[in-house]
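Marked as duplicate of an earlier ticket. Keeping the data here for the record.
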Amino acid sequence: MVLSLHSKPFTFKLSQSLHTSQGVVDKKRGWLIKLKNSSGNYGWGEIGLMNNYEIKQCEEILKVLGTSPTREAMENCISKGPGAVGFGIGSALAELDERQNSGNKKSFLEAPRSAILLARTESFFSDLDRLIQISKDKKQQLTLKLKVAIESPNVEKKFIDKLLQKLPLDCHLRLDANAGWRREQAEYWAKYFNNDSRLEWLEQPLASHDIEGLKKLSQVIPVALDESLMRYPALRNSWEGWQIRRPALEGDPRVLLDQLNNGKSHIAISSAFETGIGRRWIHHLASLQQQKTLTPTAPGLAPGWCPTSDLFSTNPKTVWEAV
């Protein structure tokens, strides 16, 4: 089957810079792709990259595919490039096949309530007070995500002490070190949060290759893997604790789609700052995680971190025309 393939490059800046232990994230770039089959049906995809060194590799893949690739050629490309290529191509093919539509009236499900990623700015605690009040007024669960391993241990301890003084007991907290702690630092925080029910998990507390240390730590405190899953994809089938799954970066979304439809537990869906085209899939998978598994949890959709424009519309044609 021969398909029609068109692509457009995109780039945008985040609403604010995101500081992590591995550096600063402030923009996203990549390609939107549009597939059309002989029946006139469309499939839309997004190849969004977080690393500049992947740009040339993706350019070459799109060049080789050309504008009239076969279905077989598209499928074969999924495993040959970065995970973002697999996501873009796989999601477009899945939409052509209506794989995401499992008896629902709407092709793509709407996102459930997200965890809140708060920036470490001067207004952090006033923003926190506002969020706590809103959650009380609306009687909604507040889940807060905080980037850590950014400042000195003493500074971070004072910051988290103050945070916990304000955070109600019925709120959830996720600490994301982005692989920035040493074992002794992670062990300190595990003891610090011992018997504190507000902590949902420590997210990638140790280096991605330190699987032994992560397993040991997970015996005393909930540990969610992120970077380790990207480095060692086989862990997605063997790690029994929480998994932070970033579909837009990990590859063909049809794999995760099947896992969620089959009730795979301890998965948290996370955004990688997608345009409206990719975001449809992230929201859809996050909704499935809530509906289909025995361990529903708030996804990490980073509300407020992307600009407000047509590039983030829920209508793929609007997104395409915005570039």
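See parent ticket for discussion. The chain is about 40% helix and 20% strand.
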